Amino acid sequence: MRVTVNGTSLFVDVEGPALVPDGDTMRDKPTLLLLHGGPGHDHSIFKPAYGRLADLVQIVYVDQRGNGRSQDSDPSTWHLDQWADDIPALCDALGITKPIVLGWSFGGIVAMHYAAKHPDHPAKLILQSTMARMDVDQVVEGFRAEAGEAAALAAKAFLTEGTPETFAEFGRLCAPSYSPDPAFPSFEDIQAMMRMIPNPELTMRFMSRERFDLRGELRDVRCPALVAAGARDPITPLASAREIMTGLPAGARLEIFEKSGHFIADTEGERFFALLRAFIEAP
Question: Other C-beta atoms within 10 Å of 84: how many?
Fold first, then answer.
């Protein structure tokens, strides 16, 4: 469906009911709102893997403003403040209260800014493979460690120039090292990327120009927070997860996945989804 939010139309998909029979009453299930990566990607990266949580939560997928099926908006509104403000507005439109918000990669950046700007809105926050600031040198070193000097140079060129040529080289030399699996990209990974509706203009502009730093505002987050990080993630390195933990209030939890890069759900899925279920079910 499409939902009008802050002057634009966002594409939304829902998996699982919000109300389920429980004896002689109807029980509310919590809502899990999934924020995809990119920017310039869409919600399809979560499917079908995250659907295994639909027995526990109602899952709401959204293509964020400027992304996927929600590209028809003013490019001047494609920025962190607007993406963060779209979340409570979307929840208001759908009648969602106290969502559990999971942000992966770029989605985690948006989720952190949202939780700091609207601290009373989320019930819980899950930050998967993400960063609190864009540190080009840190990312370049991540690619150097996982993929070598050519990938490091390609990453630096893309993150500083953001041209179609450097974007293409980044995809050729850097994307395969997002996961340490030597078979990546597999046939399934390629299919998943082909299902996505990209917005390369947004990707190039954000990655090469946006120099955000959310570390100072993380102290404003009030809800329980879980940070999941791959030890071999080149684009959001483990150092980024540790920076997030330094900024979050006491009680936040960091889980490191030693065998994983950026795609934890693919490489260590059983442990990852067990962790999510335990975090969601915890009081």
Answer: 19
Q: What are the strands, taking DSSP E only, across the chain?
A: 2-5, 8-15, 19-22, 25-28, 31-35, 58-63, 100-104, 124-128, 225-230, 253-257
**Phi, psi for 278 (deg, rounded to 5):** -65, -40
The answer to whether the CB of 196 falls within 8 A of the CB of 221 is no
CB half-sphere exposure, 268, CA atoms < 13 A: 22
Q: Which of 30, 151, 104 is nearest to 266 (CA)?
A: 104
Paired residues of 58 in beta bridges:
31
Is pTM beyond 0.85 here? yes
68, 42, 55, 64: which is closest to 15 by C-alpha?
55
Kind of pairing between the strands at 25-28 and 19-22: antiparallel
Q: Judge whether 139 and 159 are in contact, CB under 8 Å.
A: yes
Burial of 74 (C-beta count, 10 Å sphere; 0-12/13-18/19+): exposed
**Residue 193 CB coordination number (10 Å):** 15
Q: Rounded to an integer, what distance in angstroms lies between the CA atom of residue 25 and that of residue 37?
A: 38
Q: Which residue has the tokens 């502009």?
A: 205
Residue with tokens 């505002």: 217
> Mean pLDDT for each 10-residue chunk of the chain (283 residues)?
97 96 95 97 96 98 98 95 98 97 98 98 98 96 96 97 95 91 59 86 93 97 98 97 96 97 94 98 96
